[in-house]
Design brief:
The protein has about 210 residues and is an alpha+beta fold. The chain folds into 3 domains: about 5-95, Ribosomal Protein L25, Chain P, CATH 2.40.240; about 100-180, Beta Complex (RNA Polymerase Alpha Subunit, Chain A, domain 2); about 185-210. It is built from 4 helices and 13 strands. The strands form 3 sheets. A 6-stranded mixed beta barrel has the order 1-3-2-6-5-4. The protein has a 4-stranded mixed β-sheet with strand order 10-7-9-12, with no helix packed on it. It starts with a strand and ends with a helix. It comes from Leptospira fluminis. Keywords: Ribonucleoprotein, Ribosomal protein, RNA-binding, rRNA-binding.
Length: about 210
């Protein structure tokens, strides 16, 4: 899915200018990259649509900048008015092809864990990871298939299938998803073990008595 928004360049800045922009249905923005920042504005309705389309910090967006053409960016920060659900200002970060950036990638699961069907408790523990990657290899989210996950099994960060250019910036090797044994399962296991031990004892006694 491609994400695009048109930017009008602006040279005037300041509180009054920004207020006039918002009154006209525009939102002030900054575009940061290569140690420089430039100012612009975008249509508020278009921006709302873009934000509500589910973009994340790792989502690459095409900014069509007036008189400059299209630049690849991602959202660095969104400022909102605290009293109303309205965007006040956005900072976009311009990416350079081949140059690694640090960002966060969402982690979502698909499928129903095999262990859940057996009465285990499925836990999705990590919902996003911090990575360093070239822009060309960014993903909006990482999808993890948990269908084969059985009771007592887990998927760790090191087991995730990710692009070769990614450096995953986490401490240790935490668990992303797991299927845990519930109290009911543990109680059933104890009961089964007790029953099996009783059967084995009974069979042993029967043999002894039969001699």
């Amino acid at each position: 899915m491609s994400h695009k928004i048109t930017v009008k360049k602006r040279t005037e800045t300041g509180k009054n200018v920004n207020n006039r922009l918002r009154a006209s249905g525009m939102v002030p923005i900054n575009i940061i990259g290569s140690g420089k920042a430039s100012s612009g504005s975008v249509n508020e309705k278009e921006l709302d649509k873009l934000v509500h389309s589910g973009i994340r910090q790792s989502t690459l967006i095409d900014l069509e900048i007036e008189g400059e053409g299209t630049h690849k960016v991602f959202v660095k920060e969104i400022q909102r008015f605290p009293e109303v659900d309205r965007i006040r200002h956005v900072d976009f970060y311009k990416v350079e092809p081949g140059k690694k950036i640090v960002t966060k990638i969402g982690v979502r699961t698909e499928g129903t864990a095999k262990g859940s069907k057996m009465g285990g408790q499925f836990d999705h523990l990590i919902h996003e990871i911090r990575i360093k990657s070239i822009p060309e290899d960014l993903l909006e989210s990482l999808v993890v298939d948990v269908s084969d996950l059985d009771v007592g099994q887990s998927i760790k960060v090191s087991e995730l299938k990710v692009p070769a250019s990614w450096e995953i910036l986490v401490n240790g090797d935490p668990i992303v998803a797991a299927v845990l044994k519930t109290k009911a399962l543990l109680a059933q296991e104890r009961a089964d073990a007790k029953e099996a031990a009783g059967d084995a004892k009974g069979k042993g006694g029967a043999k002894k008595g039969g001699k």
